[in-house]
Amino acid sequence: MHTGSRAALQRSLTYILDGDNLRHGLNRDLCFKAKDLAKNIRRVGEVAKLFADAGLICIASLISPYRSERSACRKLLNNSTFIEVFLNVPLEVCEARDPKGLYKLTRARKIKGFTGIDDPYEPPSDCEIVIQCKASDCATPKSMADQVVSYLKANGFLQD
């Protein structure tokens, strides 16, 4: 997640960059291979930086499997305005909550190199928010979002 200045954030203007939706336009030329994933993350990071520069809270919602790409995005912004959220969620929960059917397509071998199935994921070492989930006890997406909002409020990015 990229954020603009603290004063601008208090207005709470937001935009969500959804990784899957961006693959229909900006990143339609990319597949799920490591080289293309790196391009995808870099492009989304650059777009998020533009939104943050305009004073919006930019939520980049995508799978970012490699630490190096996440670190590169962090370097695009002032470190205090880049907030990385790690959804530490078991694979079976991800598959059960997959509204776009990407995991099913991967299991059917229609997508290759998909994170967590046939490509690795490198957990973050320096994220600001960790949302821990177990297969038998996992918060709802709304509850997870509430945790992020609570962090933003507690750290002065949002006001009630």
From TrEMBL:
APS kinase domain boundaries: 11-132
Enzyme class at the top of the EC tree: transferase
A Pfam family of this chain: APS_kinase
GO terms for MF: adenylylsulfate kinase activity; ATP binding
EC number: 2.7.1.25
Keyword Transferase included in the entry's annotation: yes
One GO BP: hydrogen sulfide biosynthetic process
Catalytic activity: adenosine 5'-phosphosulfate + ATP = 3'-phosphoadenylyl sulfate + ADP + H(+)
Entry keyword set: ATP-binding, Kinase, Nucleotide-binding, Transferase
Functional pathway: Sulfur metabolism; hydrogen sulfide biosynthesis; sulfite from sulfate: step 2/3
Family: Belongs to the APS kinase family.
Role this protein plays: Catalyzes the synthesis of activated sulfate.
Matches recorded under NCBIfam families: apsK, PRK03846.1
Descriptive protein name: Adenylyl-sulfate kinase
Organism in which the protein naturally occurs: Triticum aestivum (Wheat)
